[in-house]
Write a structure and sequence with these properties.
3-stranded mixed beta sheet, 6 strands, rod-shaped, 3-stranded antiparallel beta sheet, alpha+beta
Amino acid sequence: MSSEEQKVQAEKQVEEQLVTEAEVEAQPVVEEVTVEVDESVARIAALEAELEKASTAAAEFKDAALRAKADADNIRRRAAIDVDKAKKFALEKFANELLPVIDNMERGLQHADKTNEALVPLIEGIELTAKSLESALEKFGVKAVNPEGEAFNPELHQAMSMIESADVAPNTVITVMQKGYELNGRLIRPAMVMISKAAPAATPTIDTQA
């Protein structure tokens, strides 16, 4: 082997030795980087799990908040309805106490002798008082139900008797014995009425002399 070949071989061995030493020195660095990468991956996985957990908790809190808001809205709505009903119908008991007073005035006027001039001022005073009382009640939502001539309505009227009549259709209110009353659209006393029924059909007359 020539000196030139020996020189090349020696350089090659030195180069291989340097590469081996570099690989040996780099191994710990590679292992350290691998460990750091593994730790980063684990940390990211843990953070993603915590994020998912936090997102689930946030969704649950949001759902609970929406339900609580809906419940609160329903409570407020029911309270408003109850207050409105209380305002509208607080006078029902008081109105029912006044209705017999109006009834007595109207009965007194029906039976009063209006041909007696001495009673005319008294009768007019009772009429004015009754009208004033009804007007005052109407301001607070109390309205009379006076269905004379109207079709019988079992939701508003109480039939006291039936009378045969050929002049009006069946189930027509012929006479109002006592007016009914509503409070803000709700019936507090039905009208006591007499209603019509169909008259029996006339029996044809047979001419026996024919």
